[in-house]
Amino acid sequence: GAGVSQSPSNKVTEKGKDVELRCDPISGHTALYWYRQRLGQGLEFLIYFQGNSAPDKSGLPSDRFSAERTGESVSTLTIQRTQQEDSAVYLCASSLAPRSTDTQYFGPGTRLTVL
Amino acid sequence: SQKIEQNSEALNIQEGKTATLTCNYTNYSPAYLQWYRQDPGRGPVFLLLIRENEKEKRKERLKVTFDTTLKQSLFHITASQPADSATYLCALPQAGTALIFGKGTTLSVSS
Question: How confident is the model over B29-57, as pLDDT tens digits?
Fold first, then answer.
């Protein structure tokens, strides 16, 4: 079956512009996560969605970052007024249920470059 | 704060040897630990999960140990192959169900 998909795969933008990154989770997966991976670094948790519950936004680095999810489907991560330090690969993952031991399935990521 | 360290950024071994990767953590008592594999340009892929009450877990040529006293997990690949070359990440649960990831160890297996 289809895995987690993300678009675009690459995004180059100018400093100060807004960007939207999209994630399509695996059908039926109720939990969705966004992570950021800077070059040579580990994955950094950004935000977590579970069904209709309020999202866990504890990892968002600033108020320029926001994310939405429609029901249990597509999610978009928006970065406003991008800065060069936002350059990274943004990874989305989904899991079947929010049990802590559930395997997270990752998409291929969106590589964001802010010039 | 919680911290994960994967001791080696890079590990180079010969085909057929056993690769051993280390994951240490501090300020933390996780209920479980996960290992992922990440290939260039791709997202991480789940390999194994080991719980705090399990000393060892095996899957084909992979073996993971979890020592909660030492706060350490070891990840072994036996009879390594060039196809095992990748970056391996350990991950621990933080609040909710999000994961804290280590920076990873890049394994290169030469034939």
Answer: 888 999 999 999 899 999 999 999 998 99
Q: Per 3-state DSSP, what percentage of chain A is helix, strand, and coil (rounded to 5)?
A: 5, 45, 50
Task: State which residue of chain B sits closest to A102, comparing Cα positions.
Answer: B97
pLDDT of residue A54: 87
Q: B49 and A101 in contact by Cβ < 8 A?
A: yes
Q: What is the four-CA torsion angle of B32, B1, B70, B52, rounded to 10 degrees?
A: -10
Closest CA to B87 of B52, B50, B35: B35
List of chain A residues whose C-beta atoms are within 8 Å of the C-beta of residue B93: 100
Calpha distance A74→A77 (Å, rounded): 10
Per residue in B57-106, pLDDT tens? 999 999 999 999 999 999 999 999 999 999 999 999 876 667 888 999 99
Count other C-beta atoms under 10 Å from residue A43's C-beta: 28
Among A6, A10, A43, A48, pick the best mutation site for testing chain B contact (most B Cβ within 10 A). A43
Q: Per the CB < 8 Å rule, is A43 touching B94?
A: no
